[in-house]
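pinning this so it doesn't scroll away 📌
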Amino acid sequence: MTTENLLRITITGDPGSGKTTFARTVSEKTGFPLITTGNIFRQLAAEKGVSVTELNEMAEKQAELDHLVDHYLVGLNDQPGDLVLDSRMAWHFVKNTLKVRLTVDLDVAVQRIFKDTAELRETFRDLDHAMEEVDRRRKSEILRYKTLYGVDIGDERNFDLVINTSHKAKEDITVEFDKTFAAYCAKMGRTITGF
């Protein structure tokens, strides 16, 4: 198998959209290994003693923080194997991927994140504080990626599939993905059982 017909699924999304949970589901369903670049950023934030939001803002001025992740992603183009990538920018750096973006309404995102702060290793005083931080993080990421790469991570035209997860059941999201993934497999000349 050549790198031209590898199946690579890049999943990005707004904070609170369910991106990581969805990536895990896709990995389990396809049997492809999951790589989560957000863990690299969370580890860097912990090492620096700052929140992920604060590290995002630092990265606006310190491009080397993003370049650590970028070089890793670019290197995947020469590596064998099908993959699921949970990453803000893998869709931009990894070739021939199925590009999936999850969106979510801000109020729904805040409710989700506020209930699940342990996973993000962030602490919010209350819902208002969570709303401010999530909005700040979204804006920081959009600005940072426009500045670094000249791309708008919020522009739906960059993606093969965009799903607003605000009021959809997990099963409905999976059905939407399955249809698009089956078409992607056919385009890549591959057959995966169950799709």
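📌 and the second one:
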Amino acid sequence: MPEIKDTYQTLAFPSEEVLLKEKGSKFFGYAFPVASEDEIKSNLELLRKQHFGAVHFCYAWQMGTEKLSFRANDDGEPSNSAGMPIYGQIQSFDVTNVLIVVVRFFGGVKLGVGGLISAYKTTAQMALEASEIEERTIDVHFIVSFDYKNMNKVMRIIKEKNLEIIFQKMEMSCEIEIATRKKNAENVFGTFESLFEIGIKIKE
């Protein structure tokens, strides 16, 4: 049976600003960890305020672990000369849930498409090299429901299997949300499912 891949790489926190100078143009690079399109928007807005007067804010992002979504934006540069070279670095560093923005101040000399591709690619690479990349697990969340009298039974399994408790509601009928690595999910589900009077379902 093939081993289930249940880890991914992302950024621990936003990178430091990096700067590439090319024939008078300045390229500022930034890498951010992101979890939603709202976060992408707010990071771009912050940079637009910070770099008032810059000509281009080119970027690429990728999100997701099993189903990936991505976007690359040239922001007025010639087609595929900025966004895709930036996205290529996201792929080459094998990271996800990440946004890379390269802000360009035009220096008066045109770089040509080849020069632009090289500058945007290099700045994106520098931003990722300035970032701390960490590995995280892809987790599956379950809801376990049971009567109070079965509490000890449930808690014993949670402890034995070293499961993370995300949320718990303890009343006459109890509910606990637990999380486990994807590769252990089937085993955890089977253990709870085989118990009398205890329900388990995947949290959507």
